[in-house]
Amino acid sequence: MNDYGVVTDPTTLRLERLLPGPIERVWSYLTDPEKRGKWLASGPMELRVGGRVEHTFDNSHLTNVHEPTPEKYKQYERVTFIGRVTRFEPPHVLSYTWAESWGSDSEVTFELTPRGDQVFLALTHRRLVDRAAMVNVAGGWHTHLGILADLLNGRDSPGFWSTHAKLEAEYEKRIPSAGHGRAGG
After folding, report:
1. Cβ distance 37 to 44 under 8 Å?
2. Is residue 91 part of a domain?
3. By CB atoms within 10 Å of each CB, which of 29, 31, 71, 141 scores lowest?
C-alpha cells in the first residue's frame, strides 16, 4: 500500500491507510465530534442519511507543534464547512458532501474493512473541481490521515502546516497536469 493518494479519474482522489483496530474504534474517530476534532475537524454530525455534518477546522492546533497558518490558507483558519450525510452504514461506510455551504459539490467517502486486528481505511474524495483543488485536498487529507494514524498508534504528530506544505509540494509533482493518472509513485 502506497501512502500517497491516487487520482482515479480527473475529479477523484483516493487514499488508503492501515490503522490499528478494532473497526468500531476507527469508526468512532470518523463520527464522534470530539474524537474527529483531534485529527480533522470538530462539529456535530447527524448520524443518518440526510443528516447535517459540520466541520469546524483549527488545523494549527491539531498537534502539539503549534504553527501559524500560512498566508494562502488564512481564509480557512477556524472555518466551518457544512455538508450532509449521503451514505451511512456503520461501522463500514460513511459518505458526506464536503463544504457544501461554500458551494462545493464534492463528496468524501470513508470505507472501513477489518483486516485481523487492523482496519483498512479507503478515503475517496469525488467531484473535485480542478487540479489545484485536488493538490490541496490531497495534501490536506494525507496530513489529516497521518495525524489520525499517529493518534491511534499513540504517537505525537509533527506540525500540521509544515507537514501539509511538504505534502502539497509533493502532490504538485505527482498529480498530472491533465488531472488524471496515478498520483502515487
Report:
1. no
2. yes
3. 71
